[in-house]
User: What shape does this take?
Amino acid sequence: MAEDLIRLKIESNDRDEARKGADFLDRAAILEHGGLFVTQADGEILAAEMPPSLLRAMKSTLTALAETGEVLLLRSDPEISPEKAAEILGISRPLVYQRMDSGKLPFRLVGRHRRVLVNDVMILKRLEDRRRGLADALDFDPDEATSPATKPVTTSHPFSNRAFRPHDIDELVLGTTNAPYRRTMSATDLVASISSTDWRNWIAHAATFFTEVRPELVLEFARRHAIPIQDLAASYESMKSTTGESSPALESALERVA
Assistant: This one.
């Protein structure tokens, strides 16, 4: 029986050859009759005619290898195990279970085992790839946002001169703020709560925002939404007195920019 998931990987110096192969197959796939041939050591030529659909599938595989040097071939079975999901997402199995428990990755139980839809895994992968791409562009590690920030804090606005939309900053901030919870708040909810210090049902999210999001991003979120530093500091103190949670790194940043 074929494996559910096959990882194909090539050396970096073979990626140009993969691109040439993809270009060749792209031309071959438009012909009514196409195929491949190989020449054996004794000079004999072996040929195989293939339908255009198969040539296009091979072309897509080579294109992916040319772009990244690696590709995953996944069978079209509708459900897979958490182990397979972890391999597709490129994260550990415990992190996959964390995504499930937080509601970010739906699953069902088959006996005592969890199963997830391939489509749900791919949706999550696209979201996380986009978030990681933004984080890389911002020189920010989203995986480190799951623990209190410890890096030195810059007190200027590190993203103010970069061509990032407010939505990009919001996506990074809310990705961390909402990650542990099934109920998610919007940027509008967060701005309103910070400005009014009225957390109502958002106090847990507030604690995550102030203590888990990096101080640089907290300050940039406030700047882009025109929240005065005084209001941001007052909101932080409100959260701190209510929950007992604190962020020394953020406190230091707030003192410097006050």
About this structure: Confidence is low (pLDDT under 50) at residues 141-157. The first strand starts at residue 5 and ends at 9.
